[in-house]
Design goal:
639 residues, alpha+beta, Heat Shock Protein 90, two-stranded antiparallel sheet, 7 strands, 6% strand, globular
C-alpha cells in the first residue's frame, strides 16, 4: 500500500510538471506567433503599392494589435495611402501616428507630410508648427538633406502667409546648406522661392524697382540651375515668373521675350494656360489687340481642353478688358458674366468636393467591411486547422487537452463578441453618416437654389448697370449716383447671400473658419477706406479648435460685421481693432475704434444696434456697448 501511494504521488508530481511545462510552451508559442504575424503584416504594407490593400491591412492592425509602436506605424501608412486622395483622412491618421510613434525617421516624415496638408488647407500656424517639429528631428539626426528641405518649405509657408521677408530669410539658410551638399535642384528651388518673395515684396512696397531687380536676379539663377538638372518644368515656370515681373515693370519687350521662352519649352501643355493669358495681357497693354485676341483664344482653348478653370477665369477677364478697350460692350458684358459665373462656381467647388468625398468614404467603408468579413472567415478557418494540429497534444494527457480546448473556446467566443460589437458600431456609424448626408444634400439643394436663381439675378443687375454706365453717355449726376448706389447695394447683397450660403453648407463652423471670414471682411473694409488702420488679434489663450453651430457662427460674424460697418459709416475713426480673448470659460470679442463716439442715452437707435442685440440674445450671449463723445466706441460680445 505504501509503495502504491508513493507511485501515485510520483505520477501526480510528474503529470503536473508536464502540464505546467506544456502550458508555458504553448503561451510562448502563441506570443511568438502573434509578434511574427504583426511584423509580417507591417512588412507587407511597406512593400505594397496598392492603397486599398494597405488600408485593409493597416486597419486590421489598428483594430486587433495592442503594440503602440506597430499601431503608430499602421496609422502612418494608412495616412500615406489617403494622401492627395482624401487629405482630411490623411491628416487625421498622421495626428494619431504622431502620438504613438517612437521612430524618428517616421515621425519627422509624418510631421513634414502633415505640414504640407495644413499648407494646402491654408492652416498656416499648424503648418509652421509641424514643419518646425520635422526640422527639429532632422537636426537631431544630422540629416542635412532633409534639414535643407524643411527650411525651404518653412520659407514657402511664410510666403503663403504674405510674410515675404521671413520667407527670404529661411530660404537663404536653406540655400547655404544646398550649396554645401552641392544639390543643384535644391539650389534652384531656393533661388526660385527667394525670387518670388522679392517680386511680391516689391509689389507690396509700391512697386519698388530695387526689389524687382532682386527678384529678376534670383529667378534667373533658378532657371539656370533648373536647366542644369534637366528639370524643364521648373525652368518653364521660372521663365514665366520672370516675364510676369517685367510686365509689372512695364518692360513689355522683356516680358514678351521671357514669356515666349517659357512657352517654347516642350511639354507641360496642361500648365501653359496661365502663360498664354500673360502673353495675351502683354499684347493688350501694348495696343496689339488682334494679337491679344488670338492669344487669349489660344489660352481659352487650352484651359477648356485641360480643365484648368482657374486660368480660364483669368482668360475671360482679359477678354472682357480687351472688348472694353475696343468699345465692344456687348461682348464685354458676355465675357464678364462668364467670368463671374466661373468665379462663383469655384467658390462652391470645395464644398461640393467635400460632399463627394464623404460619399466616396461611405462606399469605401462598405467595401472594406466586406473585405474584413472575408478575412474574419479565413481567420476562423485557420483557427479550425490549428485546433486539429493541437490534437497531437492529446498524448500529454486529458487535462492538458481540456485546458487547451477551454482556452481556445474562450478566445474564440471573445473574438466573436468583439466582431459583433464592431459590426454594431459600424452599422450605427453608417446610419449616422447616411442621416448627415441627407441633411447636407438638403442644405446644398437650398444653397444652390439661392446661388443659381437669386445670385445669378443680382449679378445680372450689376452687369446691366455697368453696361448702362459704359454704353450710354449719362450726364445726369443724380441718375449716375442712383445707379452706383443700386450697384453697391446689389454687390453688398451678393456678399451677404454668399455668407448665408457659406453658413448653410456647414453643420458646424470652426473658430478658424470664423477667423478667416472676419479677416476677409476686414480686408474688404480696408479697401473701402485705406486711411483707416485695421488690426485683428487672437489671444494665445483662445482655443482655436472650438466649434460653433452654424447659427452661432453666423450671428457672431454678422455682429462683428455690423460693428465695423458702423465705425466706417459714423465714427470718423483712424483706427479700428478686433480682438478675441478668453475670460474663464467665455469667449470675448471686442470691436473698438478711436472715433468721435456717441451718447448712449441720447442717440437715436437704428436697426443696426437693435439687430446686434437680437442676434447675441438668440445665441445666449451678452453684448456691452461703451461709448462717449470724442472718446471712441467699444462693443464687447461675450459668448
Amino acid at each position: 500500500m505504501e509503495t502504491n501511494r508513493i507511485y501515485l504521488m510520483l505520477f501526480v508530481f510528474f503529470s503536473l510538471r508536464i502540464l505546467i511545462l506544456t502550458t508555458f510552451l504553448l503561451i510562448i508559442g502563441f506570443q511568438n506567433l502573434s509578434a511574427q504575424d504583426d511584423n509580417s503584416l507591417l512588412r507587407e504594407i511597406e512593400k505594397s503599392n496598392n492603397d486599398s490593400i494597405i488600408r485593409v491591412k493597416a486597419q486590421h492592425i489598428i483594430d486587433v494589435i495592442e503594440n503602440r509602436e506597430i499601431v503608430g506605424k499602421a496609422h502612418y501608412y494608412l495616412a500615406v495611402s489617403f494622401e492627395s486622395k482624401n487629405d482630411y483622412k490623411a491628416l487625421e491618421n498622421f495626428k494619431k501616428a504622431n502620438t504613438l510613434l517612437k521612430s524618428d525617421t517616421l515621425l519627422e516624415e509624418s510631421f513634414y507630410r502633415q505640414s504640407k496638408i495644413h499648407t494646402l488647407f491654408s492652416e498656416f500656424p499648424e503648418a509652421i508648427k509641424t514643419a518646425l517639429k520635422s526640422l527639429e528631428y532632422n537636426r537631431l539626426n544630422n540629416n542635412l538633406s532633409k534639414v535643407q528641405r524643411d527650411m525651404s518649405f518653412i520659407g514657402y509657408i511664410h510666403d503663403r502667409m504674405y510674410e515675404f521677408k521671413e520667407s527670404i530669410e529661411w530660404n537663404r539658410k536653406s540655400l547655404d546648406i544646398a550649396k554645401k551638399l552641392k544639390d543643384t535642384m535644391a539650389m534652384a528651388l531656393c533661388f526660385g522661392r527667394i525670387g518670388i518673395a522679392y517680386d511680391e515684396l516689391a509689389e507690396k512696397n509700391n512697386f519698388n524697382r530695387k526689389l524687382f531687380d532682386s527678384a529678376l536676379y534670383y529667378n534667373n539663377k533658378a532657371a539656370k540651375y533648373a536647366e542644369l538638372t534637366g528639370n524643364l518644368g521648373f525652368a518653364r515656370t521660372t521663365y514665366s515668373n520672370i516675364g510676369n515681373t517685367y510686365s509689372k515693370l512695364k518692360d513689355y519687350n522683356k516680358a514678351e521675350e521671357y514669356t515666349r521662352k517659357s512657352l517654347s519649352i516642350p511639354g507641360f501643355e496642361a500648365a501653359k494656360g496661365v502663360t498664354l493669358v500673360n502673353l495675351g495681357k502683354i499684347y493688350l497693354e501694348t495696343g496689339r489687340y488682334d494679337e491679344a485676341k488670338n492669344m487669349l483664344d489660344s489660352a481659352m482653348q487650352n484651359t477648356i481642353k485641360y480643365g484648368t478653370r482657374k486660368y480660364q477665369l483669368e482668360a475671360f477677364y482679359r477678354m472682357h478688358e480687351l472688348d472694353v478697350k475696343k468699345n465692344d460692350y456687348k461682348n464685354a458684358l458676355k465675357n464678364y458674366i462668364d467670368y463671374k459665373s466661373i468665379e462663383d462656381s469655384l467658390l462652391n467647388e470645395t464644398k461640393t468636393k467635400q460632399i463627394v468625398e464623404a460619399q466616396e468614404q461611405y462606399k469605401t467603408a462598405e467595401k472594406e467591411r466586406e473585405i474584413l468579413i472575408q478575412r474574419t472567415a479565413l481567420a476562423e478557418q485557420d483557427l479550425i486547422i490549428q485546433k486539429r494540429n493541437y490534437q497531437i497534444f492529446g498524448l500529454i494527457g486529458l487535462a492538458v487537452i481540456l485546458g487547451i480546448l477551454g482556452y481556445l473556446i474562450y478566445k474564440q467566443q471573445e473574438l466573436k463578441n468583439r466582431q459583433l460589437q464592431k459590426e454594431n458600431e459600424l452599422k450605427d456609424a453608417l446610419l449616422k453618416i447616411e442621416t448627415q448626408n441627407k441633411l447636407q444634400e438638403q442644405r446644398l439643394r437650398i444653397s444652390r437654389d439661392l446661388h443659381d436663381n437669386i445670385g445669378a439675378q443680382l449679378t445680372f443687375i450689376i452687369s446691366s448697370i455697368d453696361n448702362l454706365k459704359y454704353g450710354f453717355d449719362l450726364k445726369d449726376e443724380k441718375l449716375t449716383h442712383k445707379l452706383e448706389t443700386i450697384s453697391d447695394f446689389t454687390s453688398d447683397t451678393i456678399y451677404e447671400l454668399r455668407d448665408t450660403i457659406w453658413a448653410m453648407n456647414k453643420s458646424e463652423i470652426t473658430f478658424e473658419d470664423l477667423q478667416t471670414r472676419i479677416s476677409n471682411y476686414i480686408d474688404k473694409a480696408h479697401l473701402y477706406d485705406a486711411n483707416i488702420k485695421f488690426s485683428f488679434n487672437v489671444d494665445d489663450s483662445v482655443d482655436t479648435n472650438k466649434k460653433f453651430t452654424s447659427v452661432e457662427g453666423m450671428n457672431i460674424h454678422r455682429i462683428i460685421q455690423e460693428a465695423i460697418h458702423n465705425s466706417l459709416k459714423h465714427a470718423d475713426a483712424s483706427q479700428i481693432k478686433v480682438e478675441v480673448s478668453k475670460e474663464v470659460s467665455n469667449l470675448v470679442f471686442k470691436i473698438s475704434d478711436n472715433g468721435k463716439g456717441f451718447n448712449l442715452d441720447s442717440v437715436e437707435r437704428g436697426n443696426g444696434l437693435t439687430n446686434m442685440e437680437k442676434r447675441i440674445e438668440n445665441i445666449g450671449g451678452e453684448i456691452q456697448i461703451i461709448s462717449n463723445e470724442n472718446q471712441g466706441t467699444n462693443i464687447i460680445l461675450t459668448v
